[in-house]
Input
Amino acid sequence: MIEEVGTTTEGDLIINVGPQHPSTHGVLHLVITLNGETVKNVEPRLGYIHRSIEKMCESLTYRQFIYVTSRMDYLSSHINNQACALVVEKALKIEVPERAQAIRVLMAELTRMASHLLWWGALGMDVGAFTPFFHAFRERELINDIMEETCGTRLTMNYMVPGGVMADLHPDFQKKVKEFITMFKSKIDEYDTLVTGNIIFQNRMKGVGYISGEDALSYGCTGPVLRASGVKCDIRKLAPYDGYDKLQFEEVIETGGDSYARYLVRMRELKQSLSIIEQLLDNIPEGDFQAKTKAVLKPPKGEFYTRVETARGELGVYVISEGGLTPYRIKFRSPGFSNLSALHHMTKGSKIGDLVATMGTLDLVIPDIDR
Amino acid sequence: MTNEELKNKFAELLPGATFDETGEWLNVMIDAKEWLPLAAQLRNYFDLHFDFLFCVTAVDWKTHFSMVYHMRSTTLGHTIVVKAKIADRSNPEIESVSKIWRTAEFHELEAYDLMGIKFQNHPGLRRLFLTEDWEGYPLRKDYIDEVNMIKL
Output
């Protein structure tokens, strides 16, 4: 473990970034060893927002524990809930109605877009451009309004439950989403002129924070981080759930492996999510929004694992059931945790300014890492 | 490889291993002492090639611990679960595999911090979420903390 302040015997400077620092997007604490301006070592110190959600879940029933998970990766709360609902459905062999599946996918993709928009705005700030933040929030606000109408909340949705979704869609849902799509389509090209094509931005991104596909796999990276290094890993394609196999969309792959590639993957994913929403919006099947389930859920003895693709990567939920009312042990394999572990590898030998840009493209959400 | 082929392969590699096929993936039960040589084989044999260790966790079974490793091969597409039993509950120890899959380094820190499993030859075992002077390991079943733990 590195000392928290001072100089090492070789004359390297040790500085602390965080736990309260604008570029860490939350309470992440990095202890950095610097030789001049060159980063020699990055050691994350975690736990500032650790609530031991896994321990809490051991005393919550299979209906209750889903609500805690909205607080993990709060930007993908729908998808977290979906993962937990899926694992309970798998254990109890519950058939989810088609309407519920379509609603889930719509909500999950809207969430992914909202999450990527927030990331895009925040990344702009990390590299010194303030305008993208306002643009991104203008669009994200519309998604939040849509969510609020149907789910009742804007951030911690708690909308997906075992067997389907909690309530039917708001009557205005389709109209509002269509308005959003029209608005978003007129803006997405603006993002490219504003940021993607900007030469200063490209110089900050290209060739920075490189990680090869093999290394990214070894570090357990998933989601846009791994796909930017040219490895296919989208769970929506690999192990489709909730009817993703019936939808037409492309798994976005870039081969650059640097910050710019990660940037491009997320920007292209925005368009893919939009296409999924368009395909489903006018084709939501009629029927129930929730399957009939027993009031008390008691999965049989056994082990269940489900995976979903959140905005940050592969979220795994591993449940060990002893046949009781509460899980015996639950483990959340969170994407941010593994992605963060590759930060040292990506930034070793680069300049300290690039550290912030690289961290921005990892899209870290600290409660997701700490849990 | 299918689960059946994987099972045959394992029976060859490790005659003492037992299997559980009730789940989606093949579960291989081994002893903690056999883990490190097996891990290297899993990663490096061309017909196994488990290059992606996606979930590492520890389970407290009250009488003993077990480490659960979920891994898949991105090139060959198969997935297995390896469960290593750590019989000694008072001093749980297992070899670190952080040299084989680098993701293990972080996940093992988590298992050490919350479950108290000691990983031999780990590059820097430390408390990850909790402070260095924290007493006990919260995810163990016998852990009691009157102040911080909220029973719901």
User: Anything to note?
Assistant: The CA atoms of residues 252 and 265 of chain A lie 6 Å apart. Chain A has 15 helices and nine strands.
